[in-house]
Amino acid sequence: MKQRVVITGMGVMTALGHDLETFWGNLMAGKSGVGMIELFDVSDYPTRIAAEVKNFDPAQYFDKKEARRMDRFVQFAVAASLAALKDAGLDVQQDTDPERVGVYVGSGIGGLSTWEEQHKILLEKGPKRVSPFFIPMMIANMASGQISMMTGAKGPNSTAVTACATGTHSIGDSYKMIQRGDADVMICGGAEATITPTGVAGFCALRAMSTRNDEPEKASRPFDIDRDGFVMGEGSGILILESLEHAQKRGARIYGEVIGYGMSGDAHHMTDPDPDGAARCMVKAIKDAGIPVEEIDYINAHGTSTPVGDRSETAAIKKALGDHAYKVAISSTKSMTGHLLGAAGGVEALICGLALTTGYIPPTINIENQDPECDLDYVPNTPRQADLRVVMSNSFGFGGHNATIILQKYEE
């Protein structure tokens, strides 16, 4: 018998809030977290907007010495993980066997700001002035490493780096680790902090981001005919997954159950998505969950607000779900959070868990003139109350990496 796997804790760090209550309240209010970039001078950039995490104080989570040795993406990951453990009521050292607690937190890009800072020092002051902490601060696996060190988790420890599919791969892989008995608890999700001069310049060069600088809050508009690209976000979304047996033994509160995971590769193009790859990914997740497609009540779409991406995902949902595609509620919360790249899947899985427990679907804001080629129900502009039992979250990354997870309302 495979272990049943449940969600017992969540932690979030985004432009819409540093805690679950604030974050969910802003989502339900249809609030955009997008504004003018303040982290650096963007006057020469075609895109000058992003969804920044404002008023983040690392000292609330760890001391200044530790903070100086963590890139911003790692700081977000550790802060969200500590919040998730607190939400789960779980102390790794006191409440369970630390060797049965794992960490799987990914990042699509890693410590970009650290790389920029140290490269500048190299050019201006020479190689002897480069920090000895440069490499361990920059590498993408250091979020998982620091969380392990901060919490004492000694179980499986790994990192996915699959672009915008990273967070969902991290959660799906963790689900499978618990299911096959490799761990009792997994701290999992994603973290990202790429609102930096090089990061923004790179995506601008790709012409992938919105240039609606005069209306930041309306710039991320998935499935709208006037969308012109994604809006970059930053932050972290972390889940605590546990075997049902472990959660029940300690009387944990349960947000929902993970029942399906699928992944696929497009084998098509670096940046141009293929609907077939995404459709196969969803079909695999549905097969893994062992449910008919008609049971899916809600999909948190990848929905980046790019012209090609939104059309491709719409076609993929139709291919995977058939006629049910026109009956299922779909929304892209990136319209409010921005696109958190490697952290997106963690934040959006968390949103799915909150939707299950509250019975409310967050909207896709800024749909003013829906694209005729995107003709499904995207829950436009206003949250919707619904009796949700099964929900799905999609994440698709550059390189053709696809990941889908399916959550279900918990029933004993």
Describe this structure in words.
The protein has 412 residues and is α/β, with parallel strands linked by helices. It folds into two domains: 5-249, Peroxisomal Thiolase, Chain A, domain 1, CATH 3.40.47; 262-407, Peroxisomal Thiolase, Chain A, domain 1, CATH 3.40.47. It is 34% helix and 18% strand. It is built from 14 helices and 14 strands. It has a ten-stranded mixed beta sheet, sandwiched between helices. The chain has a two-stranded antiparallel sheet with strand order 2-3. α8 (166-179) crosses α14 (344-358). It is globular and about 65 Å long. The mean pLDDT is 96.
What is the compact description of this entry?
With 412 residues, the protein is α/β, with parallel strands linked by helices. The chain has helices at residues 20-28, 64-68, 72-88, 92-95, 112-125, 134-138, 142-151, 166-179, 197-205, 244-249, 275-289, 307-321, 334-337, 344-358; strands at 5-13, 35-36, 49-50, 101-106, 157-158, 185-192, 235-243, 256-265, 298-300, 329-331, 360-361, 384-385, 390-397, 401-408.
Bulk shape: globular
Spatial strand arrangement across the major sheet: 5-4-6-7-1-8-14-13-9-10
If you compute it from the alpha carbons, what radius of gyration comes out, rounded to the nearest whole angstrom?
Answer: 20 Å
Mind telling me the CATH superfamily name of the largest domain?
A: Thiolase/Chalcone synthase
- Look at the structure and give the mean pLDDT: 96
Strand proportion, as a percent range, falls in 15-25%
- The third-level CATH topology of the largest domain is Peroxisomal Thiolase, Chain A, domain 1
Low-confidence stretches: none
Which CATH architecture of the largest domain would you pick?
Answer: 3-Layer(aba) Sandwich
Q: What is the CATH C level class of the largest domain, in words? A: Alpha Beta
Q: How many DSSP E strands? A: 14
Number of helical stretches of at least 4 residues: 14
Largest sheet: 10 strands, mixed
What is the oligomeric state here? single chain
Structural class: alpha/beta
EC number: 2.3.1.179
Organism: Paenibacillus xerothermodurans
GO molecular function, one term: 3-oxoacyl-[acyl-carrier-protein] synthase activity
Catalytic activity: a fatty acyl-[ACP] + malonyl-[ACP] + H(+) = a 3-oxoacyl-[ACP] + holo-[ACP] + CO2; (9Z)-hexadecenoyl-[ACP] + malonyl-[ACP] + H(+) = 3-oxo-(11Z)-octadecenoyl-[ACP] + holo-[ACP] + CO2
